[in-house]
């Protein structure tokens, strides 16, 4: 079975996707982490964030690997754990530019489809229901207000042990900017698939969102 979870930044996609994956023993794939890894590779190789050919070469050289360690998804590149590095404000500020590059998207989408292969998968991102897995049995589109998403991201930083140099207001502004860029780019913009179920999580607990999605998956299994 394929479950696609899309939506804007910090709408709770990865938190609920991870919980559902653990509960149902599905493979979880965080596609945002892959575009973030591309951005780290560009930075560490001192490349221009718009130079797609050079970034592709560097990705081929350094590689991107997603590994599950003690129930946590870790990201490796060039033999190094970059799981914390991909979440820094510098990378967050530049990932929209890198993820809008056509050759980068083509490469990542091919990799994502390969990873989803023959296993039960829950994948989160922006274009999973529309482009990566258009035949997914369950498609969810999560939304929440920009303010509540900024507050969640702040909490997330703390839990990951990252000291935030930004205020909630600055994070909110960054999130709104990224939403705009992600939904206005030419290729695979952030958009709800016509057959996706939209859930507004602003006033919902994580457990409530998980229960709601599990109910959709259950309904689908009975079909
Ligand atoms: O979900 P996230 O914030 O970690 O995603 C980081 C960026 O990657 C986001 O700004 C948009 C981009 N992205 C994308 O273009 N397509 C995806 N499937 C996932 C993320």
Core attributes:
223 residues, alpha/beta, 5-stranded parallel β-sheet, 52% helix, 17% strand, binds 2'-deoxycytidine-5'-monophosphate, transferase, Cytidylate kinase, Cytidylate_kin, P-loop_NTPase
Task: Give the secondary structure arrangement, pairings included.
Layout (H helix, E strand, L loop, with lengths): L1 E5 L6 H12 L2 E4 H14 L7 H11 L2 E5 L2 E6 L2 E2 L7 H11 L2 H15 L4 E5 L2 H5 L5 E6 L2 H15 L7 H17 L12 E4 L5 H17 L1
Parallel strand pairs: 1-6, 1-7, 2-6, 7-8
Antiparallel strand pairs: 3-4, 4-5
Enzyme class: transferase
Family: Belongs to the cytidylate kinase family. Type 1 subfamily.
Protein name: Cytidylate kinase
End-to-end distance? 12 Å
> What oligomeric state do the depicted chains represent?
single chain
Roughly how many Å is the radius of gyration? 17 Å
Describe the global form.
Answer: globular
Let me know the average pLDDT: 93
Specify the helix fraction band. 40-55%
**How would a crystallographer describe the biggest sheet?**
5 strands, parallel
Quantity of strands, as a count: 8
Q: Stretches where pLDDT falls below 50 for ≥5 residues?
A: none
Order of helices and strands: EHEHHEEEHHEHEHHEH
- Which ligands, by name, code or SMILES, are bound? 2'-deoxycytidine-5'-monophosphate
Estimated share of beta-strand residues: 15-25%
Strand order across the biggest sheet? 2-6-1-7-8
Keywords: ATP-binding, Cytoplasm, Kinase, Nucleotide-binding, Transferase
Pfam family, one: Cytidylate_kin
Enzyme class: transferase
Subcellular location: Cytoplasm
